Amino acid sequence: MTPGRVIIAVEGGAPTGGAERIAFDTVRILSQQGVPTTILSSAKAVDSAFANLPGVDTICLNLPLHFERFFAAGKAGMVLNLLEDRTMRPMFEQILRTLDSPQTILHAHGFHNFFTQACLHVATDLKLKTVVTCHDFGLTCPNATLFNYQTSTICELKPLSGECRKSACMGADAMRLKQLRFARSWASTKLHRVPQRLNKILAVSDFEREILQRQVPAGVKVESLFNPVDPASMVRQNPSQSQTYLWIGRMTQEKDGVTPATVCRDMDLPLTFVGEGPLQGEIQQANPDATFLGWLSPSAVKEQQCKARALLMTSKWHETASLVVLESLAAGIPCVVPTTSAATNWIEDGVNGLTFEAGNASSLASALAKLKDDATVETMSKRAFEMYWQAPFTVERYQNDLMRHYEGALNQ
Questions:
Q1: What is the pLDDT along the chain (412 residues), one digit of tens a residue?
Q2: Residues of the domain holding 371
Q3: Which of 213, 27, 42 is nearest to 116 (CA)?
Q4: Fewer C-beta within 10 Å: the chain N or C terminus?
Q5: What is the pTM of this model?
Q6: What are phi and psi of 120, to 5 degrees?
Q7: 193 & 277 share domain
Q8: 310 and 183 share one domain
Q9: Residue 389, CA distances (Å) to 236, 238, 353, 382 in order
């Protein structure tokens, strides 16, 4: 059964981040398949490359961050809006009632920063076929990351437990925001029973799916829908001929660019950073000799991937998929990843890459020491390329799996 219309709910107007990229990839696929598609965006406008696709229309809400709306409402307004975003609810009701039909699917790719859970509350109340792709852990975790920013470690607390409510996981100065996120997550899960009422909950890796499956209410099924990958190259590169290691991402606490900067400085290994962020100064101070390229175009990023000896992905939190790892493996570039990342779904330690303990400089140094041998890098490169292309994450694969999940949602 083919959808009569798909509403892609995305917090952004262009493919700027991981969730947005997959959302807009989905829009392009649906347009090519002739499925009428509505982009429901929190942004002021949608990139014309997608807004002008055949069969695509847009609804742009131009929203401020949800917590700015909340804290600007005064005491009475904050009390009324604590468990539900009462500003967004009537807006979503008006939009979704207009688009609702037995063949319509709402496919949400984010709801934490602008939309809030009100989007899902309205959709499920209307019994609209509702699919959520979980690009993070926001369906179960109030701060959406399962990460404690105060201790800089993965949070092991049960989401929405008493300990979770009291935890200053978003930082001591963000407790008011944490309490708001907790209250709304609690209401969404306990009062609105959103996880039980969704037609499909989709994780972007088996690693993420297993975590989410342990956290959703009993009887709720989480399934996997792997993201499409745009390979850095379809031809195997020669990383053993390079000496430069590569790090790509936003320079934040959870992405941990400081540890690889320090380790590569101490081991006298050339290191290139692609990206920017609030910790850039600290990372540059840790390794003044590293190369900092800032944000690059997608094609320029791929060029850097193809020139690397290995990709270093050093996040302290649970990465749910890490497209950059798969892009690199497709080009035969070995990857070094933490044991707590979804990238371990695709990295076999010592075969096509290496694993290490997140945040542990000694563990990372031990892994990098193994890559000093050119023959080892060459062998890993061959296996990385072979293993990826045995079952590549193509657009066609994503499209087929996506339509299968849509059919399943429509048949419920």
A1: 789 999 999 999 999 888 999 999 999 999 999 999 999 999 999 999 999 999 999 999 999 988 888 898 888 888 888 999 988 999 999 999 999 888 999 999 989 889 999 999 999 999 999 999 999 999 999 999 999 999 999 999 999 999 999 999 998 889 999 999 999 999 999 999 999 999 999 999 999 999 999 999 999 999 999 999 999 999 999 999 999 999 999 999 999 999 999 999 999 999 999 999 999 999 999 999 999 999 999 999 999 999 999 999 999 999 999 899 999 999 999 999 999 999 999 999 999 999 999 999 999 999 999 999 999 999 999 999 999 999 999 999 999 999 999 999 999 8
A2: 239-390
A3: 42
A4: C
A5: 0.94
A6: -75, -35
A7: no
A8: no
A9: 11, 17, 16, 11
Q: What is the C-alpha separation between 370 and 126, in angstroms, rounded?
A: 56
Q: From CA 401, how far away is CA 100, in angstroms rounded?
A: 24
Q: Is residue 354 located within the same domain as residue 261?
A: yes
Residue 11 and residue 65 share a domain: yes
Same domain, 112 and 15: yes
User: Is 264 inside any structural domain?
Assistant: yes
E strand or H helix at 29, and its extent? helix 18-32
Q: Please provide the size of the chain in residues.
A: 412
Task: Extract the tokens encoding 199.
Answer: 């037609």
Q: Are residues 386 and 297 in the same domain?
A: yes
CATH number, domain at 115? 3.40.50.2000
Residue 113 lies in a domain: yes
Q: How far apart, in whole angstroms, are the C-alpha atoms of residue 57 and residue 84? A: 28
Clarify whether residues 382 and 404 are in a common domain.
no
**Same domain, yes or no, for 291 and 377?**
yes
Q: Judging by beta carbons within 10 Å of its beta carbon (0-12, 13-18, 19+), is residue 335 exposed, middle or buried?
A: buried
Helices 323-330 and 298-306 meet at what angle, rounded to 10? 50
In a domain, 234, yes or no: no
Alpha-carbon gap, residue 170 to 249, rounded angstroms:
21
The pair of structure tokens assigned to 162 is 């008493």
